[in-house]
Amino acid sequence: MRLYGALEAGGTKMVAAVFDENGEVVDREVFPTRTPGETMPELTVYFKRFPLAALGVASFGPVNLNRKSPTYGCITATPKLAWRNYPILSDFRDALGVPAGFDTDVNAAAIAETALGAGRGLENVLYVTVGTGVGGGLVINGKPVHGLIHSEIGHIRVQVSPDDPMPGGNCPYHGPCLEGMAAGPAIEKRWGVPARELPPEHPAWALESDYLAQLCATAMFTFSPERIILGGGVMQQEFLFPLIREKTLKLLNGYLCHPAVNNGLADYIVAPGLGTASGITGAYLLAREAVKE
Ligand code: ADP
Ligand code: ZN
Question: Shortest CA distance to 100 belongs to which of 185, 9, 218?
Answer without folding.
Answer: 9
